[in-house]
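--- STAGE predict ---
source: upstream dedup step, 1 unique chain passed
mode: sequence only
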Amino acid sequence: MKCVRRILVLALLLTFAGTAVSQPTKVNPNDMRNGPKIVQAFRSVVAKPSEYTVRVLADNKEVAFGTIVEPDGWIITKWSEIEANKDKVTVKLKDGKVLKAEVRSVQDDKDGAYDLAMLKIDAKGLPTVQWRPSKEATVGKWVASVGTGADPVAIGVVSVATRKYKAGDQGPKIDNFKAGFLGVGNLTEAMGGAKIGSFPKPSPAEKAGLKVNDIIYEIAGRRILDTESLINIVGRFKPGDKVLVKVKRGDEEKEFDITLGTRPKELQGNPQERMGTRLSTRRGGFPAIIQHDSGIRPDDCGGPLVDLDGKTVGINIARAGRTESYAIPSEDIQPLLSELKSGKLAPKDDPLTDTAPQ
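--- STAGE serialize ---
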C-alpha cells in the first residue's frame, strides 16, 4: 500500500502548505482528515474488508456493523446494541441481501466484558475477515473503520496502542441516564460488594430502608462485585421497575424490595453529548482495547478496524469520548471464536435482558 501512503503524505503536505500561505477564513473540506481527498485515498484500503462487513439491524433499525469470521455465516457484532431486541436481529450483506440472524452466544459483563455477540445466518461461501496482530498498529499509524460501502465510515490514527486492563481500571460499562435510579452515592469498593457513602435526595434506596455503610452485594439475583458492576446492573432497568436488593449490615444480611425512581435532572445527560458528540451507551470495562481518534458513530461499532494494508487489527466496540474510539484487539478476539460458536454462552432470558434500556 505504498501508493496509499504517498497519497496521504501528499494530501497532508498540501493541506498544511495551503493553510500556511493563504490562511483561508473558511475551512476547505479537502483540508479535513475525513475530506474527499483522504477518503478517496482510503477506498482501496477498505475495498476488501467491506466484503466481510455486514450491517446489523435489530427490530428493523440499524444498530451496528458485524464482521464475518467464518464463510458459513458466523458473524461477530456488538452485543449491547442488539440485546433489547435479540430475537429480532437481521443482517444486510454488502450486496443488499437481508437475512435473519440468530444470536448464538454473547460475551457481556458477566462473561468477560468484551460486549460481543456471535450471530449465525443461513449462508455459505462468504468472504471472511483477514486478521493482523494489533501490536503492529503502533501509535500514530493510520487506521480506517470499515462499513459496507466504498468509503470508510471513519478515518484516524492510533492514539494509544493495545493495552490490557484489570477489573475496575476503566469507568462504568453502562452509563444510561434514562435508566432507573437507585439513589446511592459516594460508593466505595468493599469486600464482597459496594459500600454506600451517602444518599442523594430523593433516594428510593434510603426510602426503602438502606443505610450509609450498608454493603450491597446483590441486585435482582446478580452479584455486585464492585461499584462498576452496581452501576452496570442498575443501568439496565427502567424507572418504576422493582428490584430485590441484598445488603450486608455489620454481621447481618438484609433484603429490600426497591422501586427504582427517575434520575434527577441535575444528574441527567453527558456533557460531551450536549456538545454534539454522541457516545456509546456502553463504553468501558473492556479487558483490552486499541484507542484511536477516528470518531466512529456508536451505531457503526462491531465492524473491522483496519490498517493501510486492509488487514483487521481489531473490532470497533465503542465511541468513548469526543476523540476516543475503542476497538478490541485481534489477539483477544480470535481465541474467543470457538467458544462463541459452540453456543455455551447463549443469551439467557433474565430480568436484566427483559428490561434492557430502549
